[in-house]
Design a protein that fits this description.
Elements lengths: L3 E3 H8 L3 H14 L2 E3 L9 E4 L1 H17 L12
Antiparallel strand pairs: 1-3, 2-3
Family: Belongs to the eukaryotic ribosomal protein eS25 family.
Protein name: 40S ribosomal protein S25
Organism: Paramecium tetraurelia
Length: about 80
């Protein structure tokens, strides 16, 4: 099981107040990046990262990096 994401962990880690942390959690939950961990309470938000979405993003980034041609390094200038 991954790390639990709560208002207090977000506010401590990113040094923001609780209202902004709640808004961020709600935003990421609507976008599908976070999924509820168990039953939700109106006073305490407990979420975890949606592993399927993260894996899909990593695969897309790896595919994009593979499609991108490698830049050739220049030889050092001779003196």
């Amino acid at each position: 099981m991954g790390a639990l994401i709560t208002v207090s962990t977000v506010s401590d880690k990113f040094k923001v107040n609780g209202s902004l942390a709640r808004r961020c959690i709600r935003h990421f939950a609507k976008s599908g990046l976070l999924v509820p961990a168990g039953d939700q309470n109106s006073k305490q938000y407990i979420f975890t990262v949606n592993a399927q979405v993260v894996a899909a993003q990593k695969a897309a980034a790896a595919a994009a990096a593979a499609d991108k041609p490698q830049a050739q390094k220049k030889a050092p200038a001779k003196k």
